[in-house]
Amino acid sequence: MSQLKFTSLGSGSKGNATVVGYDEALILIDSGFSCKLLETRLAERAIDCQHIKAILVTHEHSDHFNGVPTFSNRYGIPVWMSHGTSLNQKAEKIKALNVFNSHSSFQIEQLEVQPVLVPHDSREACQFVIRKGSSCLGILTDLGHITPFVSQQYKDCQALLLEFNHDIQMLMSGRYPPALKARVSGSLGHLSNDQAIDFLKNGQLDSLKFLAAMHLSEENNCRHSVLDQINGLSLDSVEVTIACQENGFDWVSI
After folding, report:
1. Which end of the chain is more exposed for a tag (fewer CB within 10 A), N or C?
2. How far apart are CA 164 and CA 226, in angstroms?
C-alpha cells in the first residue's frame, strides 16, 4: 500500500501552501502565493499540477487564499472550503467550488479528510486531519487557542504540522502597534510557542512520530528558541523540523 506523504511549500505570513497525498494523487491545502510562484514551488518538489485532485482552503485570509482562484481555474481543480469561508468575495471567482460540512469527514480519492473547526478571527475557519489507511496527518495552524474539541481531534496523529507563531515576549516588546499585538496574541489569533508546547505536553499525542513547527513569525519568533523548547520536551522518537517561509520542508512519508 502506498504511503501518505506531505510537503510544505512555504509557511508564514507571506504565504502558506502544503501538499498531501500518495503516489500521483495529491491535495493542495491553501495557497497564499501567486499562481506563478506556486507553480515554481510545485516544480521544485517535482509535482505535476495535473496530479493535484483538489484544493482545501482553511480560511479566507490572504496568506492562505490569494493564489487559490487563479490556480484552480487554470488547471480545473475543484476547491473545497467551509460555508463561512465561501462567503468571501474572492471565492466567487472559483469555477469549481465545493462547500463541505465542517462537522463531517469526506473522501478525496483514498484520502479521508476531517475538517476541524478552530477559533480564529475569520468565518468558520477549519484545519484538517487527513487519513489514509492507518496513517494520520494533522495540520493545525491559525488558531488563537487549543480547545478540548481540537485536542480530541488530533490525538491519533502520527505526523503533526503545528503552529508556533510567536514568542509572546518578543511580540509584546516588538514594533507591532497595540491593536495588532492584541489580535495576534488573542483567543482568536495565533498560537504562541508556549501554547504549542503546552499542547505537545498535554495533548495525548502518543502516536506522534513527526512534528513540523509551522507559521513562525519572522518578526516575533526565533527558530533556535523554538527548537530549544521542543527539544526540552525530550520527544526522543519524534523527528522535528521547522517549516520556513521560503522553502517549507521537503517530502515526508508516514
Report:
1. N
2. 8
Q: Which residues contact 242 (CB under 8 A, 6 or more apart)?
A: 164, 212, 213, 216, 223, 226, 227, 249
Measuring CA to CA, which residue among 89, 85, 97, 92 is closest to residue 142?
85
Q: What is d(CA 69, CA 156) in angstroms, rounded to the nearest whole number?
A: 33
Residues 230, 252: Cα–Cα separation, whole Å: 19
Please list the residues that pair with 19 across neighbouring strands: 7, 28
CA-CA-CA-CA torsion for 77, 33, 246, 221, nearest 10 degrees? -120
Q: Is the pTM of this model over 0.85?
A: yes
143, 119 contact by CB (below 8 A):
yes
Q: What is the mean pLDDT of each run of 10 residues along the chain (254 residues)?
A: 92 97 95 97 96 98 97 98 96 97 97 98 98 97 98 97 98 97 98 98 93 98 97 92 97 97
